[in-house]
Amino acid sequence: MAGSRRKRPVEAVDAFEAIEPPGNAELVLGVLAVTALVEALGVLSGSEVWLLGLLVFLPGTASALCTVRQTAFVAAWTTLVVTTTAVVRNVDADRWLDRLLLVLLTLALGVASVYACHRRIGREYEMLRLRSTAAAMQRHILHPLPLVTDDVLVNGIYEPLQEDRLVGGDIYDVVASPWGTRVLIGDVQGKGLAAVGAAFAVIGAFREAAHRESTLTALVDALDAAVVRHNSYAENTGDDERFVTALVIGIDALTEEAQAVNCGHVLPHVMHEGTVTTPALDSGVPLGLAELALEPTTVDWFTFPDGATLLLSTDGLTEIRAADGTFYPVDERLAKRLGLSPTELPRALYEDARAYAGGGGRHDDVAVLTVRRSPRR
């Protein structure tokens, strides 16, 4: 069943979170408190020695939460307390073997706990290294903003769902081609290391095909083929197939119009002279699913004059929800921020959306771009 499907290594890395160990003072106080409690219960019940058997679980708990040194301290302390109590209290010649076994069990569990802690920390380090490598790869393929061509100035932000996890599914790129500037923004289904593989496929294909294909439809067809090839490889290796919503914009310096091919993505907004308009684009189908489309890829045109700004985003912005489940009203909030510069607007919208969601709201990875049209020469 789907609910019992075992996680693959990639999914395990994505879901992994490192454990922050307690401070030394906090640990010592906790161990002393537990020891005192067990001692008190032993005195009240008259079974000081046998209740100390409860302490053997302390090193095991420490191995899951603490550093190796902290776990070794807990193991040594537990062994010392159990040994001292077993030798000094309730001296009974008939029960010496039981007390000896209790001491040996405490010692053995302490050693095993230290070893388990060492293995756990080694695994945490490896997981963090893999995630750090993936994050570095993603930062490398996503060019730092702003990006400048002869036709446009592109500013924006990319914010992952978790600040310490820069491995998300949102992608963007800008290419100055022989046929004008081509802009891509997209959202890979899912997130984490598996999503990075699909992101590599799309961005690599975009950078190559943007210089090769003279039409936007041929460019998008090349992107779809790249996702199909990636899914074929993923299927052979046991990974899930993925699709990518995307919006590809073509901007030519010779005309005041822009071309767009929408592949199931969030619609853009055009800001010009104090007004906001949303171009009417065909919804299309996501990359990787073109074979399901009833019609071939088509291009839409919309007005994008000199000095206008195009706002592009992923659904991480439009699908942010407040605690009561209402979606973030992008159009309404954008209309109130037309006075901001293209550099300031993406961050302002993102911060406003986060505030709208609040602590109990829902949000996802967010990419917001502003594309400022340069005056035609």
Q: What name goes with the CATH superfamily of the largest domain?
A: PPM-type phosphatase domain
What share of residues are in beta strands?
A: 15-25%
| CATH fold annotation of the largest domain | Phosphatase 2c, domain 1
Q: What CATH first level of the largest domain would be assigned? A: Alpha Beta
What's the shape?
elongated
Radius of gyration in whole Å, from Cα? 30 Å
Distance between the termini: 62 Å
> What strand order characterises the main sheet?
1-2-11-10-7-8
Beta strands, count:
11
Helix fraction? 40-55%
Helix and strand element order: HHHHHHEEEEHHEEEEEEHHHE
Poorly predicted parts: 1-16
Structural class: alpha+beta
Quick one: biggest sheet?
A: 6 strands, antiparallel
Q: How many domains make up the 3D coordinates? A: 2
Q: How are the secondary structure elements laid out?
A:
Blueprint: H1 9-15, H2 24-45, H3 48-51, H4 57-65, H5 68-88, H6 96-141, E1 147-148, E2 152-159, E3 170-177, E4 180-188, H7 193-212, H8 216-236, E5 244-251, E6 257-263, E7 269-272, E8 275-277, E9 300-303, E10 309-313, H9 315-318, H10 330-335, H11 345-357, E11 366-373
Question: Descriptors for this entry?
Answer:
377 residues; alpha+beta; Phosphatase 2c, domain 1; 2 domains; five-stranded antiparallel beta sheet; elongated; disordered N terminus
What does this structure look like?
46% of the residues lie in helices and 18% in strands. The chain has 377 residues and is an alpha+beta fold. The chain folds into two domains: 133 residues, no CATH class; 230 residues, Phosphatase 2c, domain 1. It has a six-stranded antiparallel sheet. It has a five-stranded antiparallel sheet with strand order 3-4-5-6-9, with helices on one face. A hairpin with a 5-residue loop joins strand 5 and strand 6. Helix 4 runs parallel beside helix 6. It is elongated, with a radius of gyration of 30 Å.
